[in-house]
Amino acid sequence: MSKELTEQIFAIMEREMSDIGGFIVKKQCMLIGSDPENIEPADLPKLASNLSEVMRTFGGYEKARKIYSEIKKLENLDKVAEGEKSDDKRQNMLEDLGMSCIFSAEWDKAFEYFNRLYGEARAGNDKVQMSRYLRRLGFIHQERSEFDRALEYYEQSLDTAEDSKDPKAIGQACNNIGGIYWNKGMYEKAGEYQERAIESALKADDKKILGSAHIGLGNIHADSHEPQEAIAHYKDALKYLSGTDEIYEIARAYNNLGDTYLQMKDWNNSLKQFEKCREFADKGGWINMKAWAEFNSSEALVELGKLDLAKKNLDDSLDILRKIGDRVGLGGIYQNYGRLYSAKKDWAKMLENYDLAVAVFTEINTPISLAEVYEELGMALKKMGDGERAKTELRRAANLFLHLDLQKQLKRVLKEIETLG
To answer: What is the pTM of this model?
Structure first.
C-alpha cells in the first residue's frame, strides 16, 4: 500500500507542477523525516501540511486547496489522526491538518481543528498549549488580512503565555503581534513587540524566534529607509539562524539583506547576498525564493550596466513565477523590467511594465510597493522629459507615503515635485 500511496502522491504533484513536482515531494519528505520512496499513511498529515504551504506560497490558495483535496481522497486524514495512540502525536497531526486548511483557505475547517485543540488544552489547563492554539486561530484571520481580529487572538495568546510564565510562548506571541502592527504600518508599536520577542527568546534560547524577530525589525527599518539599522538586524537574524533547519528564513534574511544594499546603491554587496539567498533556496527547495533572488539581482545588474544578464535573470524568473502564480513576485519583476527598459531608454516598454507593476500591487493591496513604483515611474518620466505626467505619478506616491506616515519618503518625493515646478 505504501508503494502505491507514494506513486499517487508523486502523480498528484507532477500533474500540478510538471517537472518540479517530484522534486518538491522528495524535498518535503526529507524535511519531515519520512522516506520519499515509501510514504506511509501516518506521514500524510504532516506531508499534506508542508505541500499545502509550498503550493500556497508558490501559487496561492487555489493550488494549495487542489493539492490538499487530492491527498484527502487517498486517505481519511481525520481517521489517521484519531487512530494515533500517542496523544502528543495525535495533537500534532490535528494541528498539521489545521494548518493545511489554513493554507488551502478552508477557514471554517481550520477554525474547527484549532478551536477543538484549544478546548482540549483549556480542559487540561495547559496554558502553553492554549497560547499556541490561540496564535493559530489568530493566524487564520491574519491570512484573511483581518488584522484587527488576528490581533485580538494574538493578544489573548500573549496574556495566556504571560500567565504560564513560559518565555518561548511569550516570545512567539510578541513576534506575531509585531508582525500585525508592521502589516498595519504602525512601525513604532511593531518594533516594541519585536524587541519584547527578542527579550523573551533570549531567555528561552530560541534561535528561531530570535531570527524571526530580527528579520521583523530589519523590515521595519528597511521600510522606514534606515538601511544601516536594517542591515544590523538582518545580520543578527543570520547569526541566530545559522546552523538551524530554518532554511526558508535564512534565505529570506539574505534576500532582505540584498534588498537593503540595493536601497543603499551598494550593488556588488547586494549581488553577494542574493547569491547566498539562491544557495539556501536551492538547499530548501524554495523555487519561489530562488526566483526572487534572481529578479532582485537584476536591479543591481542594470545599475552596473550588465543589461543583457539583467534581462536573462528577469526572463528566467518570470517563467517560474508565472508557473507558480506568485503575484507579489510578478509585481516586483514588472517593476524591474521597468527599470531595465528605462536604462535602455525604451520608453514604451518601460511604461508598459511599470503599468503592469501598478496593476499587480493595486490588486494585491501592497501600498508600500505601490508607492515605490509610482515614485520610480515619476522619476523615469522626468528622465523621459514628460514633467507633467511625472508630477502626477509623484503626487500619487506622496499621497501613499503620507497615508503610511513615512515622512522621509514623503519629503523626498515632495522635493522632486517642487523641482518640476
So the answer is: 0.80
C-alpha cell at 34: 519520512
Cβ(417)–Cβ(391) below 8 Å: yes
Which residue reads 504600518 in cell numbers? 185
Do 347 and 384 contact (CB within 8 A), yes or no?
yes
Taking alpha carbons only, the member of 67, 58, 59, 153 closest to residue 106 is 67
Within 13 Å of residue 375, how many CA atoms lie on the same side as its CB? Answer: 19
Tell me the three state secondary structure of residue 401. helix
Inter-residue contact 377 to 395 (CB < 8 Å): no
AA letter at 8? Q
Which grid cell is 289? 525564493
273 burial level (CB within 10 Å; 0-12, 13-18, 19+) = buried
Q: In angstroms, rounded to a whole number, what is the distance separating the alpha carbons of residues 421 and 411?
A: 16
Separation of alpha carbons 324 and 55, rounded Å? 8
Closest among 67, 25, 22, 58 to 291, alpha carbons compared: 58
Residue that is written with C-alpha cell 502505491 in the block: 4
User: What is the mean pLDDT, run by run of 10 residues, along the chain of 421 residues?
Assistant: 85 86 88 90 94 80 88 94 93 96 93 97 97 96 86 98 97 96 87 98 96 97 92 97 91 96 96 95 81 91 95 90 76 93 94 94 81 94 93 94 83 92 77
Which residues in 11-21 are b (16+ Cβ under 10 Å) and which e?
ebbbebbeebb
Q: Which three cell numbers stand for residue 354?
A: 511599470
The predicted pLDDT at position 18 comes to: 79
Q: What is the mean pLDDT of the chain?
A: 92
Q: What is the pLDDT of residue 99?
A: 96
Half-sphere exposure of 107 (CA within 13 A, CB side): 9
Dist CA 210 CA 200 (whole Å): 9
Interior CA angle at 197 toward 192 and 200, to 5°?
A: 125
CB 177, CB 151: distance < 8 Å: yes
Measured distance CA(313)–CA(292) in Å, rounded: 10
CB atoms within 10 A of CB 27: 19
